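Late entry, evening session. Most of the bench is empty. Finally got around to the prediction I had been postponing all week. Sequence below, unchanged from the version circulated by S.P.
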Amino acid sequence: MASTTEILSRSVAGMNALATVFLAVGILRIKAGDRVGHGKAMAAAVVTSALFLALYLASKVHLWVALGKTNIIYRDGVGLTWDKVLYYLVLFPHIALAIGVTPFILWAVKLAKAGRLEEHKRLAKWVFPVWLYVSVTGVVVWAFMEFSGSLAAAAAKAP
């Protein structure tokens, strides 16, 4: 049976994957001229991303309570390897862009809700690909942790 650490991690990845789907549907809908469908898909992406954040924070609290740390180290104790370098090359921009893009996502939503569609469109042209990148790389980061055994190793240390 999966541990709480693994369940939370998989849930976080699932929210990222679901947000990616909603983002893809949203861009396809607006390209097809369907503003209503676009709005619904993007609203679902925002809600899914908010659920992601709640689960992510819950996972951090769990790690602190269960393991006394806030992060699981990728392949802890292993020296510098090509996959570790690749992992960190994906992880660091993912984190920086996730933090940086969030207020702009909220601003784009505000512009759309206010009917300021030209401003929304200009902002969304660069916010959308960053948000999509963050959602996709969130799943990639999870896959590194899951398939390297790092999650299972950390979960085995929990009481």
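Two things to note before I forget:
The first helix runs from residue 4 to 31.
The radius of gyration is 17 Å.
Will write this up properly tomorrow.
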